[in-house]
Amino acid sequence: MKRFPPLVFLFLLLASPAAAAIQVPQIPLSSDPKDVSVALQIMGLLTVLSLAPALLIMMTSFTRIVIVLSFLRQAMGTMTMPPNQVILGLALFLTFFVMATPLGQINHDALQPYLAGNMGQQEAIQKGVEPLRNFMFHQTRQKDLALFVHMAKIARPRTPADIPTHILIPAFLISELKTAFQIGFMIYLPFLVIDMVVSSILMSMGMMMLPPVMISLPFKIILFVLVDGWHLISRALVASFH
């Protein structure tokens, strides 16, 4: 059996089970039909590798974190501050922090034994996906799981192991979206109060032509700084996964 490099192994770990069975073929140098089939296999493998980063994002805490940070920026009304690169960078490193334990388990239980030759490819992938499944199960609502189990028309699962990964992932995603929007709503409230107070004051003073955003923006920024907003947001996001 041909062995994949560590990076390819990690990509296949997060890809579909069918992709995990693809073997890395040789580059065809002739027009033989068998070589054409090998070329198609290479294209399929490259397609899986191109989708692997998206799979990695969808199966971790990144979705919730980046949505909440985007809500925060919109609630403050700072437009492009912080820039998208900063928002994505912060979300990525917070994701690494939250996922440190599952990723450590994958490295210890699957990747290192596989690289040492003590474990086969299929067994390593099965052991490696378990920490991610456990993480997703802890963050997924039973109602969302039941929805996709019902739509998939499979037998009622008795244990988490009976739930296929292709059912768990969309249930996990919609649970993450709901949680992120709930957190975003709570973030919006204090900034909304500031906007309403400033707007009422301007109307009472007869300054209806002055945009309330120009006056409320500095107050929202100074409020966020005074309460150490980035500290509170980061702590709340990390704590929401435990």
Outline the fold blueprint.
Blueprint: H1 6-14, H2 17-20, H3 33-58, H4 62-76, H5 84-98, H6 100-115, H7 121-139, H8 142-152, H9 165-204, H10 212-226, H11 229-239
Helix pairs in contact: 1-3, 1-7, 4-5, 4-9, 6-7, 7-9, 8-9, 9-10
What does this 3D model show about the protein?
The protein has 242 residues and is mostly helical. 75% of the residues lie in helices and 0% in strands. The protein contains 11 helices and no strands. The chain is elongated, with a radius of gyration of 24 Å. 23% of the residues are buried. Residues 7-12 and 14-30 have low confidence and may be disordered.
How far the N terminus sits from the C terminus, by CA atoms, comes to 40 Å
- Uncertain spans, ≥5 residues at pLDDT below 50? 7-12, 14-30
Categorize the overall geometry: elongated
Estimated structural class: mainly alpha
Q: In brief, what are we looking at here?
A:
The protein is mainly alpha-helical and 242 residues long.
Highlighted features:
elongated, mainly alpha, 0% strand, 242 residues
